């Protein structure tokens, strides 16, 4: 059978035209779908987040099962009865300055009565370095670990503020307390929770303020939020009347983790309250606290917030290129000497 | 009297010729004077250094006269007799992290018996902040000050290694000890001198090693000299058989100030030994120690130099631009709140 060349050409042209029309009709650009699309995307994102949370909870559960604790260990210092225990949650990760930071902080904590130090490593397994360190540090401690999910890990070139460190570690600490408070002296009644990073600086006076917490205590933090100090402004009775901060001014709690302490009772009452790694930058603390308390619950401490007793110091990241050079030459600093 | 024009011209030409010859004979370029020149320059430089040292000594004398000390103060903790005192010399300067660094260090030192803390401010006058801090810190202390000479001050853009901080402050501490040892318990016999910066990290175990010093003790320092650790390598008897370092390998004492302690007796015996601000970069410690001891005098401590008990940590310089913005707007962080 033969087709006339003219027809053939016309057919081909028609097909092309039809195809073009069909594509045009079916293509997403042919009608406005922005709203629908973003709704769907949001739903998907929410699902992902729910799943992530679930995985996190499971991970935490697994990790908690193998937590190392000296809380009830007869070799570690004993807790004085009838004085609230301060549960201080400290995330930590492997780096050149880790042991130095932990050493320095532990020596401050050695001055504090009834301190229970919950050290949570950002690692797949508990490291020998931290395990040995804690065993020797003469403090009541619990040693936990959870590795930060890959998508939340900050690479070395990203700025510090881009991704928050220690989120999953703090959550693990909270959940450990929720699961273990019944075995604590007095079932943890009256105890207080405080988040304390390993390179911050704490005046030992701060711990008296922490221990006196009734629901939520707040105080200024030195060298924080880009300012000489950031935090609550109080009247003479300790009522918070304003917040001193330079950015993200809409935050209901414009405060760093080092700037508040919360009663363990409250944490137990709101058993699902967690720190959300997907919070907007700078909103971690506000989003977390808003699940449990109101800004009006905040009680100003440290001489009505006129005293700075904690500083958001950071340990400078050391330069490692000389060591790398020696490693390349097969002559690293003796690895048997722990630093 | 008239001169013949011809003669005049000849005379002028002769004079010019003579002048040229004389200049040629006297000019430094006419013979090779490199050696002589550099000798002269060196002599001049030496003189300048001597004068500088003299000025420094005078300055120190003036400052010492008005030193604040709680060494014999009945309100500060008392020294236990028959245990050597550790005189720890700490230079400090005004910056955002100063109070945090001093707070953190003081809380480590509070664990140490018979510790005399010599805090030397880099300032024209003693600051209220440091004076108040020391009064409250519950340690035996002496408060001194000397401002670093202008030519030795590092500007904010110069790299850290370019100019050494704390030289004149450490020298003032040494000279204070030389002048005051006779009024100390046991006249300072058996006491030990240690240089400890305010942002280093010290394991409290280190102070047992310091106190046991016989002449010169040495040990490795963590995160130092570009390496994971820098310092002596010892045999099983604590004899230093090598030094682990990555640069300036010719130094007789390739060690940081944090890596040694010296008996006060030795410092008293060599009464003119001082730290020289004009030492080559990295040679401060070596040039200082070489005035009093030999490398063979060094005794390796801290489990034969197998343990790191001090880290050369640095506190990160905070970003201040938000505060500067608020200051420009006339709304600085409340200056009455001390940080």
TrEMBL record, chains A, B:
Its cofactor is Mn(2+). It is an enzyme of class 2 (transferase). Keywords: Disulfide bond, Glycoprotein, Golgi apparatus, Manganese, Membrane, Metal-binding, Signal, Signal-anchor, Transferase, Transmembrane, Transmembrane helix. It catalyses: 3-O-(beta-D-galactosyl-(1->3)-beta-D-galactosyl-(1->4)-beta-D-xylosyl)-L-seryl-[protein] + UDP-alpha-D-glucuronate = 3-O-(beta-D-GlcA-(1->3)-beta-D-Gal-(1->3)-beta-D-Gal-(1->4)-beta-D-Xyl)-L-seryl-[protein] + UDP + H(+). UDP-alpha-D-glucuronate binds at residues 91-93, 122, 165, 170, 197-199, 312-314. The keyword Transmembrane applies. GO terms for biological process: carbohydrate metabolic process; chondroitin sulfate proteoglycan biosynthetic process. It comes from the Eukaryota. Its EC number is 2.4.1.135. It is a single-pass type II membrane protein. Mn(2+) binds at residue 199. Residues 316-339 are annotated as: Disordered. InterPro entries: Glyco_trans_43, Nucleotide-diphossugar_trans. Pathway: Protein modification; protein glycosylation. One of its GO terms (molecular function) is metal ion binding. Pfam families: Glyco_transf_43. The record marks 230 as: Interaction with galactose moiety of substrate glycoprotein. It is found in: Golgi apparatus membrane; Membrane. Belongs to the glycosyltransferase 43 family. This is Galactosylgalactosylxylosylprotein 3-beta-glucuronosyltransferase. It comes from Amphimedon queenslandica.
